[in-house]
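Protocol step 4 of 5: obtain the predicted structure for the target chain.
Materials: sequence only (see below). No template structures provided, no constraints applied. The aim of this step is simply to have a reference model before the mutagenesis design in step 5. Sequence pasted as it appears in the construct record:
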Amino acid sequence: MFDVIVIGGGPSGVTAALRARELGASVALIERGRLGGTCTNDGCVPTRVLAHAARLMRETAQHERYGLLGERPQLDFGRLIGRTQEVVYAIHEKKQLHKHLESSGVTVYEGVGPARFVDPHTIQLDDTADRLAARRFIICAGGHARRLPFPGAEHILSSSDVWDLRELPPRLVIIGAAATGCQLASVMNTFGSHVTLLEVAPHILPGEDEAVADALQTNFIERGIDIICGISGVAFAEQVDGGLRLVYDYDDAKHDLETDAIIAAVGWPGNVDELNLVAAGVKTERSYIVADDCLRTTVPHIFVAGDIDGRMMLVQSAGHEARVAAENAVNSLEADGEMRAYQPLIVPHGGFTEPEYGSVGLTEKKAREMGHDIVIGLASMVNLDRAVIDGYTTGFCKLIVDRNTRRVLGAHVVGEQAVEIVHLVAANMVAEAPVENLASLELSYPTYISIVGLAARRAVFYLGLMKLAPEWHEIGPHYAAEWERRDTDAALS
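Step 4 output (structure tokens):
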């Protein structure tokens, strides 16, 4: 009998197994497919390869402006998909997960299963006669792309099926305009597809700050992406001459679209169905395992981490959850073992769209709903020298600051390197430092990250911590560096 069995070999499973071994437990890890999980194999890593290719194509549009003459390159979509697999293999080779786990003392069962509970302390590996027992379990079985249940759904690709495409669809419909849908829409539009984006919510990126959603939606429309928000649902899909026909409900009527491919990016339920959780007594809700703040399921010796608990659904969160779950699982082996809670308060995230967006903490709407008296520090990329140099002046940095504590409650960035920029604010938030710390940082010039200093100094001004002559009051909310001045605020927007 093992001390701990970890089910699932993605970021959360590998991290949980290694942490449990660090604490001295005997550990087995079970993975039905390839180690690395969705993110490495068909999620974040290959998607970022597509986004990188889109960035390279975007750069070519500026060549003549910077004196670089010649024909713009053409996309070979099949070769690009091949490159995504090369990168996935390179990431696997770099990580050497199997070797790393075994050298750390973890017993690895790869390419077996799925694992199914026989009773609360025993699992069966379906492909073999093997049964394994443990005192503690950590379920890190991840999730999968949701399939839509309507007639003709067999014609719909999931986000995980994109890697099976060998040609770029001239016309593409994407159902779902959250992070995954928007990234795919942005990339495919850059490659040359005519993209239509369908969303049930009133606007794209419904979980983000409204300023981010508005900026991305405006930019998408300017680039020729058709956006239809507020649909009631999809009625059916069918094959027609030359492609597919999708019928959807909008404004109490049925509308149709003819297209060459349809991708659904409408959710990520947990992989709970094949685990036979009933035999273990583990409760599930809405396709996720129910767990408390210590990541303990309804069965005290079974813990959970990663996408399957339906919390944050991010790689960085999966790793953090895994460490908490592993420590609690191992500590619970002792009668007086200490348990700690997982509290995902500050989790920077973003999307590699065009332009990028990055966020951390509360949105403006949420901050106001929670009763915070806030000030907004806002700076525009149009005022940033680095953005002018590079020719990419779309975007902004928005800081949401509590007036009483002067701490940053949230940050939302749109523009070049937005996903990287937001981490500076996240570090300030973790340190519980006041916004004037960000305002006083001597950030390198010329950089994109210096926009944080501009936004922070604006917040400091609104807090009454920085005195300005009357003339500065007229500059408006998007003011630039202190040594710059424009005649009207309209010139800055």
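Step 4 remarks: The chain is about 30% helix and 25% strand. Residues 477-493 have pLDDT under 50 and may be disordered.
Proceed to step 5.
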